[in-house]
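SAMPLE LOG
Freezer: B-3
Tube label: C17
Construct: single chain, 213 aa
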Amino acid sequence: MKMNKMEAAVEAILFASGEPLESDRIAQALEVEPEYVTSVLKSLGDKLSEAGSGICLVRMEDKYQLCTDPEYAVPVRATLEIKKNTPLSNAAFEVLAVVAYNQPVTKAFIEQVRGVDCSGVIQNLILKGLVEERGRLELPGRPLVYGTTPEFLKCFCVSSLDDLPDLPEHEDLPLRENIINQLEINFENGEITDNPLVAENIVSDGGDAQPEE
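STRUCTURE (predicted):
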């Protein structure tokens, strides 16, 4: 299959999927080497960008997805009548920050950092697709461990966890404040910055009835 036909095939697969797909999975479907698919994806992304298309190719670690270009977020939202994202609660924001910078982590670790019960908040973040279970530790009780998802990467406009900013070391601040202060660079006034890749995934959190510190 010629390069232009291969690009069209990959574009069709990504469009039909509507969700992030691994390059290996695309290669398997097209019966070609994964390295070749990677080069096709790069070429496709470059062509969409050079053509000024309203669609762009987004990479999230080893997965790829076709998304609307951020430049056209306003008309897209107006057309689809997408409501403005509701801010994350402070509790959800803090838990997400702790998980993002320390994963994989247990619920006990998160609660040690925050100082309050986090069961409800963790479950809500799982339902929103930002956090997922990553298995169990081989320890008494076999506690679950948690990590972030590809949806988290998409919401924060990063391709991998390596792209998250390093945590500054402030000896006068405890771990909780260090983590929260750093991840807040992606937020404005408690809200996720205007990111058209996020539709209605983030809604207000109803969990964690404990008083905040």
